[in-house]
Amino acid sequence: MELTNHLLVVIDPTCKEQPALAQASIIAKKLNLDLELLICSYDSNLIEHKELLDLNDVHQQIDNYLKQHYQTLEQLASPLRQQGFKVNCESIWDYPLHEGIVRQAMQRQPFMIVKDTHHHNKFSRAIFNSADWNLIMNCPFPMLFVKPDNLWSTPTITCSVNPVDEEQDSQSADLDMLQLGKLLTHKLNGKLKVYHTYYSILDVPQTIYPWGGNFNSIFNQEVDQQLRESHRQSLFKLADQLNIEHEAIVLEDGEAKYTLPKYVKKSKTDLLIMGSSCKSRFEQVFIGGTTETVLDDVECDILVVHPKEFKSRVKKEYPPLVR
Question: Within a domain: residue 77?
């Protein structure tokens, strides 16, 4: 995987602690990367009743507002520069937050975006349209979500893959995830695990199938074992493409959204790497996928990777300051 020269770190100006910056500094040092600190902000109060104000005055207020955030960034950057990091600071006016972050990334082309995250349940996602969840669905760059109090330097990294998915973008995403996981494992002197689950056909409620009483004559223990072995062989094939030892493979029974959080805790995983598929808007809001569900359920940091073919719905061009 190609290494671009910097990490884009999203700073929350409302918080004193910046776990994303702390973790990004560790990664940047190990990978010899620069840092770009970003505050993306928008204050509707500054443009309220804009039709009654002089446009130059509105722009001046926005400029002063951004300068305040820039000073905050410079305060964070100063000790890092003293440690030898190359740090660039950017304070931008954009809304909504996830679009501003993606637009800045499109302009700057970072190796990875790093942002801290907090708990969101499905209801709050549906109502408040959380920036984290929208970044999962719209950010074409590797997106690292850092949770508080979880700094790591020599991590146990788990890549959650689905090698039996026949969709081309899913197969591409698996390879991209493993390449990134292997790179980070090497650079950070960590340990890599490749995780996959097999949901036994025998555990699926028979009532959802049209065969009724003939179910057991079609799917039995022998067929189930054959299917499970096909998953294992697909895992081996995927690992062989990147020369990953088979000992790194973990195959568990069950649904990933239930088993993966338990495995992460049991294995003391520091970083979970996952892919994300693009669903319909209805599925995004009311159902979510494995990645969106696991984001709230695991205690470790999560790195979300889209396939190279992924196209973001966010426009690259910046909107006008006053809309």
Answer: yes
Best CA proximity match to 101, nearest among 314, 320, 301, 267: 314
pTM greater than 0.85: yes
Q: At what angle do helices 290-297 and 256-267 cross, to 10 degrees?
A: 40
State how far the Cα of 182 lies from the Cα of 118, in Å rounded to an integer. Answer: 27
Domain region containing 25: 6-305
> What is the CATH number for 31?
3.40.50.12370
Residue 239 belongs to some domain of the structure: yes
What is the distance between the alpha carbons of residues 29 and 203, in angstroms, rounded to a whole number?
A: 47
For residue 315, the SS3 value is coil
Give exposure, 99-127, as e/b (b: 16+ Cβ within 10 Å): bbbbbbbbebebbbbbbbbeebeeeebee
Taking only the tens place, the pLDDT of each residue in 139-183 is 999 999 998 888 999 999 999 999 987 665 667 789 999 999 999
User: For residues 13 and 69, is the Cβ–Cβ distance under 8 A?
Assistant: yes
Number of neighbours of residue 5 by Cβ within 10 angstroms: 13
CA–CA distance, 94 with 40 (Å, rounded to integer)? 6
Interaxial angle between packed helices 290-297 and 131-138, expressed in degrees from 0 to 180 and rounded to the nearest 10? 140
Token pair of 295 as six digits: 């984001």
Residue 237: C-alpha distances to residues 16, 37, 249, 275 (Å): 46, 40, 11, 19
Domain presence at residue 56: yes
Between 278 and 229, the more confident residue is 229
Q: Is residue 271 part of a domain?
A: yes
H or E element at residue 256: helix 256-267
Rounded CA-CA distance 198/251 in Å is 7
User: Domain total for the chain?
Assistant: 1
